[in-house]
Write a structure and sequence with these properties.
By secondary structure, this protein is an alpha/beta fold. It has helices at 88-95, 100-105, 110-118, 122-138, 154-170, 193-210, 228-240, 257-263, 277-284, 294-300, 307-312, 333-342, 348-355, 357-362, 391-394; strands at 2-12, 32-41, 44-50, 61-64, 69-72, 74-76, 141-147, 175-182, 216-221, 244-249, 268-271, 289-292, 318-319, 380-383, 401-406, 409-410. The chain is globular and about 70 Å long.
Length: 412
């Protein structure tokens, strides 16, 4: 089955030679073709170019998209999509002056979500997560990572990961699963944290590996959560089971987590609202990609990742949503791209690169998605009639999307 899209006003993120990621000054270059066509066959992009070179090309179906842009779907490499309940009461607490750390110290935050999740049946968790995922797809997300970490017991972490596995089986987009048992220290282990780390390593990891429930392992390396030494211990244990590291790091403090992540060949280091010159030097000498989560900064009122400093050091940068019930109750990547432009002073070209090809790299999926390239999955956005791609971050409360295609099929 072949489908030909014609009269595309602008075909965006076109890569004749597929790249894994773009860094530094290259992030300001967004290759496009104006007045273009694109051909897909079944799930795959097989051809594209300017309309003047289309010739007498035949197809089973022809779709005229006059006035509309086509770009790859967003690649969201950091979410906590599976959770039991919202936490708007903490939102009110922050309005009344409490900080994220203060709320956590009095039993809120991650531990609040863990208590709720432990008591919620797996089927209900799945149904709620499936509804959220449908909304994210409608807003343009076409590949995604989902973490555990609101279980904090063997049974509940496995419950979360099994929900993610079921989402993988039932939805037509690439989904990566991350084991985040080291999200917080459960109350039961407050005075014996070594015992909880032993539980992660000796009991959780073997079952997760045996059931093939995760692709990655994550740790919240931060004051009050996990030390760099503990992070190193957990990551090394995960690596023994084939789980690639991804770390929450430098959200509030720089305590050495970036160095630990790079030493363990982490795929990505996520947050980086705090970034020292020493941290940046470590990043420059690695293949690890930093991931910024600007809607978390927006919602908590904390600093934004210094995107300009990262790009000026010729380091790549990805954008992700951090969708979760406590610090980022939105997974809308269009808003993430807008915030990157408005608050982080990234250009539309840099932000779109960060949310497509670099986001795909942070998912270890840049060989499949993230650009309009021959041989990649036909996962793309068709916009409404708009003037230019800069209108997407500019019109931050408007829905610019007309249709989403996943694996070459319109998503309803």
């Amino acid at each position: 089955m072949t489908t030909l899209f014609i009269n595309i006003k602008e075909l965006i993120q076109v890569r004749d030679k597929s790249v894994e990621k773009v860094s530094g000054k290259d992030m300001s270059i967004l290759p496009t073709i104006k007045n273009a066509f694109m051909m897909i066959e079944n799930e795959i992009i097989i051809n594209f170019g300017p309309m003047e070179k289309l010739g007498n090309t035949k197809a089973d179906s022809i779709i005229d998209v006059t006035g509309r842009l086509i770009l790859p779907t967003w690649s969201d490499s950091h979410t906590h999509l599976v959770f039991a309940d919202t936490r708007e009461e903490e939102f009110v607490d922050r309005i009344n002056g409490l900080s994220y750390e203060q709320i956590a110290q009095r039993g809120g935050g991650i531990l609040n979500s863990a208590t709720k999740l432990q008591n919620k049946p797996e089927e209900e968790l799945y149904n709620d997560a499936a509804k959220r995922l449908e909304e994210l797809i409608k807003s343009g997300t076409g590949s995604i990572e989902i973490k555990s970490g609101y279980g904090l017991t063997l049974e509940s972490e496995l419950k979360m990961l099994r929900v993610i596995k079921k989402l993988k089986e039932n939805f037509p987009l690439p989904i990566k699963a991350t084991f985040l048992g080291a999200h917080a220290i459960p109350n039961l282990f407050k005075e014996k944290r070594e015992a909880y780390i032993k539980l992660i390593i000796d009991e959780m990891l073997p079952v997760i590996a045996a059931e093939k429930l995760a692709d990655y392992i994550d740790v919240f390396c931060e004051k009050g959560y996990y030390t760099p030494e503990e992070t190193n211990q957990i990551l090394k244990a995960g690596l023994q089971y084939g789980l690639i590291p991804k770390i929450h790091v430098n959200q509030f403090n720089s305590i050495g987590g970036i160095k630990v992540g790079i030493e363990n060949n982490a795929l990505s280091l996520d947050h980086l609202e705090v970034l020292t010159n020493k941290d940046l030097a470590h990043l420059k000498d690695s293949d690890t990609i930093p991931v910024s989560l600007p809607s978390c900064s927006f919602f908590l009122g904390i600093p934004y990742t210094n995107a300009r400093k990262i790009m000026e050091a010729n380091v790549p940068l990805a954008l992700a949503s951090d969708y979760n019930p406590g610090s980022t109750p939105s997974g809308n990547m269009n808003f993430v791209v807008s915030l990157a432009c408005i608050k982080m002073k990234m250009t539309p070209e840099e932000a779109i690169n960060a949310a497509t090809i670099n986001g795909a790299y942070a998912l270890n999926l840049s060989h499949k998605v993230g650009s309009i390239s021959k041989g990649k999955l036909a996962n793309f956005i068709i916009t409404k009639p708009i003037k230019s791609y800069s209108y997407i971050p500019y019109s931050f409360t408007n829905n610019c999307i007309e249709n989403i295609f996943l694996k070459g099929v319109k998503y309803y």
